[in-house]
Design brief:
Layout (H helix, E strand, L loop, with lengths): L8 E5 L4 H12 L3 E6 L2 H13 L3 E6 L5 H15 L4 E4 L14 H29 L2 E8 L8 H5 L8 H21 L4 E8 L9 H9 L13 H8 L10 E4 L6
Parallel strand pairs: 1-2, 1-4, 2-3, 4-5, 5-6, 6-7
Helix pairs in contact: 1-8, 3-4, 4-6
Length: 256
Amino acid sequence: MSAELSGRVAIVTGAAGQYGRHISRALAGAGATVVIASRQLDACEEFAAELRDEGASAVAIALDQADESSITTFVGEVIDRLGRIDVLVNNAVLRRGGVPAETTYADWAATSTVNSTGLFWLTTQVAERMAAAGRGSIINIASIYAMIAPDFSLFEETAIAPTPPFYAFDKAGMLGLTRYFAAYYGPSGVRVNAISAGGLLSDAMDPAFIAGYSRRTALRRPAGPDDIKGPLLFLASDASGYVTGINLPVDGGRTL
């Protein structure tokens, strides 16, 4: 069975960012109409236009995951404009603070509002509509840091700032929510899974960090832009029709 998504509508949150763009292109390439969602509407509209110029189907709709009314309005607008929601990819993440002593109360509250509360509210709104339709796939983009602690010696070797504590906390919670929603909405035909992604290569990445990170993976390299494509399309499509509640590490063996 192929990872065919023609005629389906897929929401990608945080779609204007690096990972979001790779995810959106993968879904669009499989035939889905992709909803490019982010607080940065101008960036979303520009990216959606870029996808349309390439022959894909994409629309941009504003979403502020820190605002309950924005989430509710967003979901309603997707339904009004496109008539259905088949796939939700929870990719948005707000980053604030640093190591524990450098993270303020306000930093923690802000990240929790988006990465936990907003995630829950959006996923619930979408899952209820999927359940009413009797189908749907929700994919939560988690992290290796939901599974293991950061190796702080790696950050000491480079100019890259260590992973903040909120990130481990929120991504671990995302895995718990994945299992909960999979069990709760499974009888209604809604599948909920997670991908725990490893480090994604970017042009701005410190070469020393790339070398150090690569030594810590079984495949001796960070993730490239295409590495998430196959796992994502598998979970989004009918190819994984009997798969729910799992966490799929896409990390080159970093968490072995």
